[in-house]
Design goal:
- By secondary structure, the protein is an alpha+beta fold.
- The chain has 18 helices and eleven strands.
- A four-stranded mixed beta sheet has the order 2-3-7-4. It has a three-stranded antiparallel beta sheet with strand order 1-6-5. A two-stranded antiparallel ribbon has the order 8-11.
- α7 packs antiparallel against α8 and α12 packs across α13.
Length: 540
């Protein structure tokens, strides 16, 4: 979810007219009048802080290069199109912020990997500061010694959790789809509910039935945060706008208050019931890591609590980590699953090949599990190809140069913002044959074995790579394999195939579409998550 917030900010800023936009226009007009009256230069890239100078979009005072970014295309496509004119590496001004745009793998590799620590900083933005209590999370926090300790704690906590809760969620989702078999159904709501349940189980050991008030609250506040960020924008480019009436910020604060009330309640419950032994969930693991459970062993997060407290890991870090699990884990995973189903509706031959592979490797007597993944290379290649052709985060979270460095032989000053356009990298014909085509085979060699091109980076790379990548990949595998083992998916009668262009909100998501489900095997006609023979008994 969180990787596209710059794109959302710009698209919102350029594509809507609001009171704050009008206010900004008046201020800009005043600035321009004053500047013109003084004989100042109003067009050009002023004193570019790169040597030798990078190609730069035209820039106006206050507005920067925003006028050059206007258009009907979403940000990732506009940045790529501008790259055809200015080259794969160029500069622009986001309002007052000098920003370098990276459209090629060669330069992205420098930023993310070769000089990853030099470009590992994050800009402070109004919305993210609100969301994360001043950067107490992983994704938006600046690159500091405290951040590295926090990230290590979270990464070690994630390694404690396996597939059990995910298999239960897959089974419950299959029951939902079975109930509407043969009918046109929008797969979005049941997928969102299933993925939310997975995150709730991993974070605070709660599993909900459809309609549960607490689950509804979680989904509503998460959706509210998503929508307010998608409708905001200018305040992150011009932070001083936060001092003016702003309905979007007001709603965002309201949603955050609802979120924090629920998470504080769960945290207090966990503090009371916390015990020596294996953690039940992420909150347990983080609390044990924070306070130092020195009497237990094996988790990799215990026994370091006093040091963590000395370094500044506090309850806000625990809460914001839990909040980020929802923000980053629900929207991105459910959207990727929607893209998978959308492309399979367009390519039924691919769906059939995946199902034949599942029949050969797993059969129909049990659910696919993590040990099957090594033997299902084509299914894995389908997931990879979907993440390549429709990256849910087409523009990564902005990086900041923490020191004077360089990209492509151009010196880049400390404090420069860097935008990595993952869409352009994943659609670069220099690295991908016919990149506009959906071809899972590109991730297999001639003998059907997996290959992973170095320019494939759906989770980013380097020090800022997504900390939840392993969990996300496992979740995608279990959902896709479980669904395609049991159902065939077809376009709903009389309804067009899904639009594959997508819409950029907080993530790049497909437009709503409908499909119908049919069972592949009569043994799946009576699904019940409590009695199903397809989930190992120890996970129930």
């Amino acid at each position: 979810m969180i990787s596209t917030m710059t794109g959302v900010a710009l698209d919102s800023a350029l594509g809507s007219v609001s009171p704050s936009t009008l206010l900004l226009g008046l201020l800009v007009a005043g600035a321009l009048i004053c500047l013109l009256a003084g004989g100042g230069t109003v067009w050009g890239c002023h004193h570019p802080p790169s040597t030798p100078p990078l190609p730069c979009l035209p820039s106006l005072p206050v507005l920067g290069s925003l006028l050059s970014l206007r258009g009907d295309q979403p940000l990732h496509l506009r940045l790529r199109e501008l790259g055809h004119r200015y080259g794969p590496l160029y500069a622009l001004y986001l309002g007052p912020h000098y920003t370098v745009v990276v459209n090629s793998y060669q330069h992205a590799r420098e930023v993310l990997l070769q000089r990853g620590k030099e470009f590992a900083g994050r800009p402070k933005m109004v919305t993210t500061e609100l969301l994360t209590r001043g950067g107490k999370d992983i994704a938006f926090s600046d690159y500091t010694p405290l951040w590295k300790i926090h990230r290590r704690l979270v990464h070690n906590s994630f390694t404690l959790f396996g597939e059990g809760s995910m298999l239960e969620a897959v089974e419950a989702l299959c029951c939902d789809l079975q109930a509407s078999r043969g009918q046109a159904v929008d797969p979005g709501p049941p997928l969102m509910r299933a993925v939310t349940n997975v995150v709730c189980t991993l974070v605070f050991s709660s599993t909900y039935q459809p309609g549960d008030p607490e689950l509804t609250s979680v989904m509503e506040y998460n959706d509210g945060i998503v929508q307010t960020i998608a409708n905001g924008g200018l305040v992150d480019i011009y932070p001083w706008l936060r001092f003016f009436p702003n309905q979007t910020l007001t709603r965002l604060r309201d949603c955050i208050n609802i979120r924090d009330t629920l998470l504080n309640k769960k945290l207090e419950e966990h503090k009371v019931s916390l015990s020596v032994g294996e953690p039940r969930d992420l909150l347990d693991a983080l609390l044990q890591g924070q306070t130092g459970d020195k009497q237990t062993r094996g988790s990799g997060v215990r026994g370091q609590g006093s040091r963590l407290e000395e370094e500044g890991i506090c309850e806000d870090h625990v809460l914001m980590t839990a909040a980020e699990a929802f923000g980053a884990g629900v929207e991105t995973t459910s959207t990727t699953l929607l893209w998978v189903l959308a492309f399979l509706l367009h390519h039924p031959q691919v769906q059939g090949r995946v199902q034949r592979e599942l029949d050969e490797v797993v059969g129909c007597g049990r659910s696919p599990n993590v040990s099957d993944r090594a033997h299902l290379p084509y299914l894995d290649s389908v997931i990879n190809e979907v993440m390549r052709i429709r990256p849910v985060s087409p523009v990564l979270i902005p990086h900041i140069a923490l020191t004077t460095s360089s990209i492509g032989g151009h010196s880049v000053r400390k404090g420069t913002r860097v935008l990595v356009n993952m869409w352009a990298i994943h659609h670069d014909p220099d690295h991908w044959d016919t990149p506009q085509d959906f071809r899972p085979e590109r991730f297999l060699d001639n003998e059907g074995r997996r290959i992973t091109p170095s320019c494939f980076m759906p989770f980013g790379a380097g020090p800022r790579v997504c900390v939840g990548e392993s969990l996300a990949r496992l979740e995608l595998f279990l959902f896709v394999s479980g669904l395609l083992q049991r159902f065939s998916f077809s376009p709903a009668p009389g309804v067009s195939l899904p639009d594959l262009q997508g819409r950029l909100g907080v993530v790049l998501q497909p437009l709503r579409y409908s499909l119908t489900t049919g069972p592949l095997n009569p043994r799946f006609d009576t699904l019940n998550p409590q009695t199903s023979p397809f989930i190992p008994s120890q996970t129930l």
